[in-house]
């Protein structure tokens, strides 16, 4: 029974009969820890491989590309020589996601506050489960519902905003009565990212130290003043990182956007208005899967996918860094000792 | 009371008077309550609306036994009939293979983070990469597998390729939830096991993982629910087939999302529209069922410390 490979701890008693720690460092342990380490390493490898493979397959096409990849709006990977640039894709992707975030974050914060500090205790859990169910609806169903049932409802909003603010290029009202526009996609994206932002904000808000809240109330605050002075400052960084995660999701959403956005004709001049159609990285790639027939063409789409990967990578990294930097509440509350707090588990709800 | 009132300094008009809620502050408070409640109601509208739409438009075909047992073989958009058996099986087969690959890696990865790597720099790198993987869009996962499976290795577009790309999406979900559950296992249990002379790997396998089992199952179900509804990888990595194909390594394969995608352009035709909504309802039922089961399992399997 005694282990002879010298891995026994140094403070092990000399009398092995009284304290045998078992076969320390034997095959089973080495194998098992190897498997565990390997699985951890595999995750790192996968992320690295995603970047490496996409880059490797994009480079040949990029080398042949006859137009500026970053600043051109042309997308003709089938031409000889191929011409493709991501400017238009980038614009639509970013604009639609940012509008989605602008709509979703305030509502999500409201919902999170409602479940943590307004809803009756008994209602709070079912209510948050109901909002979580929004995340369970498959995105293709959001797309169908979005374009068939929800979009017609947005027509007066689009017409109204287009008439009132049409002098700003981004709100310019297009001549057609089409509702499959960037704005519609943004609203549907907002609904889709709502549960993510809500879930994380809710967790952070719920952790506001009871001393802060009671302190505010003891000073005579109303419930809203308590939230504004104690809860919101405490949860600010959490909400920011939750929004970034929502943004990351909106940037990469494919099928809902694909179904909702009407693709402009190849000959149409480019339109910067959010009341016009367009294509995002993801919808462009998914829409043209049938075109992956030559390495050059495929490479062009893979290059677009690589840009999307890099953008989401950056956005998600920033979210993660914000979470890491700040035990919620940031500097102001760091000195306060929080008795009985559980260790932070960021991203637990993902 | 009289002494208190007497000792109270005379109000100088400058210090903040917090003795009552002035009209303005009370109004703001009420306004905030109303707005916040409104936020919640607004957020609920799409959920109710979507569920209502899909149920009311889709339930008709689901009552038909043929929906669950027949394929769409030979049925055109203008014709009624046929079922979703091919698509349901395709969805189930592809997600099952995904789970078979993703779950062991996820659990072992979580074991690494909690039992072996806790606090090390390497574990922080792994943890960071899991977050990044969580944020990888499904279309990028699909493109990556396309790049490896089809462009580099030259294989065909088959169901298995879809499963591979779904592994990338399911892995981080299961890993994170498993990690959370393993963290909750009280150290006393581990120490008791070590004290009995059980080696670490056996302790993990026989004590730690079984204790956290309920939570791990919850994570697996949530992960499955997430990948079942994914459409983008299906569009790129496998063709849609109306025939029954149960072999993930050969030929095109039907799946519920691609079945919806197939007929959605012909919604003006009643048979096609009926099938689209029925397929959507079937998909939602599968996904919601998994979600509800996950919650149920979670409720009955909380880890009791001590």
Automatic annotation (TrEMBL), chain A:
Subcellular location: Cell membrane
Principal location listed in the UniProt entry: membrane
Molecular function in Gene Ontology: phosphate transmembrane transporter activity
Transmembrane intervals: 40-63, 86-119, 131-151, 179-200, 238-263, 300-323
Record's keyword terms, sorted: Cell membrane, Membrane, Phosphate transport, Transmembrane, Transmembrane helix, Transport
Segments of this protein annotated with the region Disordered: 1-20, 329-350
Transmembrane as UniProt keyword: yes
GO (cellular component) term, any one: plasma membrane
Pfam families linked: BPD_transp_1
Family listed: Belongs to the binding-protein-dependent transport system permease family. CysTW subfamily.
Biological role: Part of the binding-protein-dependent transport system for phosphate; probably responsible for the translocation of the substrate across the membrane.
Protein name: Phosphate transport system permease protein
Organism name: Kribbella italica
Automatic annotation (TrEMBL), chain B:
Keyword Transport carried by entry: yes
Listed SUPFAM superfamilies: MetI-like
Family listed: Belongs to the binding-protein-dependent transport system permease family. CysTW subfamily.
Keyword Transmembrane helix attributed: yes
Domain of life: Bacteria
Listed GO CC annotations: plasma membrane
Keywords: Cell membrane, Membrane, Phosphate transport, Transmembrane, Transmembrane helix, Transport
Full protein name: Phosphate transport system permease protein PstA
